[in-house]
Amino acid sequence: MARYTDPCCRLCRRENQKLFLKGTRCFTEKCPVDRRGVPPGQHALERKRAKVSEYGVQLREKQKIRTFYGILERQFQNYFDKAQRKTGRTGETLIQLLESRFDNVVYRLGFAPSRKAARQLIVHGHFLLNNKKADIPSILLRPGDEVQVRDKSKKMEFIHESMKRMKENILMPWLNLDKGAMRGTFLNHPQRADVPLNANEQLVVELYSK
Q1: Model confidence over 123-160: pLDDT tens digits?
Q2: Is 51 inside a domain boundary?
């Protein structure tokens, strides 16, 4: 399975905003977005001052969303095609599909400090989905689906440290969490206004419509 292996912080600097790819590091003074404030590369300042075309703006929004959820180009294209076939606004449906990914839900519930860490935990078999072992991060959850840490994994310090940072007031409204049982429920697909993503998905629709 293909995956991105280069430094994650370069991606945040390229978009000039935090995409929360490194977990707790993003909330510390070590975050390169706060320390440097310029895109990566030798000619970063020249590119920053250069005029960006309409296509360039649309491309950057697409790359931002793709990077935020940690998926590759072919996967993103497949999600867009699936969103187009559904009724409603394509951009909002696209975000709903991405938010319903298994790895994203594990991250949102606080079982992992980042989506990358959530994928690793899922692949290693530390979670149950509807009381069945599931090790595919890209599974799309449906309303009512339950995610639970496996009994043999409930003592993992890595998961407990991540859950300690999870505050009730930042739990997404489309999720329910039982900290004691280390179980969460995907209640429904989120409304776009509730998703903390600083991006314009309509520009992605315009990009793929050309």
Answers
A1: 999 999 999 999 999 999 999 999 999 999 999 999 99
A2: yes
Positive or negative: CA dihedral 132, 134, 140, 143: positive
Going by C-alpha positions, the residue among 35, 36, 31, 39 that lies closest to residue 13 is 39
If asked whether residues 49 and 38 sit together in one domain, one would say yes
Query: Contact, 114 vs 21, CB < 8 A?
Result: yes
CA 45 to chain CA centroid, nearest Å: 28
Closest CA to 165 of 119, 110, 125, 87: 110
What pTM was estimated for this model as a whole? 0.80
* Distances, alpha carbon 132 to alpha carbons 125, 127, 166, 181, in Å: 10, 8, 25, 16
Q: Among all chains, which residue has been given the structure tokens 């989120």?
A: 190
Range of the domain at 83: 8-98+199-208
What CATH number should be reported for the domain holding residue 42? 1.10.1050.10
Q: Answer yes or no: do 127 and 63 share one domain.
A: no
Burial profile 120-149: b = 16 or more Cβ within 10 angstroms, e = fewer? ebbeeebbbbeeeebeebebbbeeebbbbb
3-state helix, strand, coil in the chain (%, to 5): 50, 10, 40
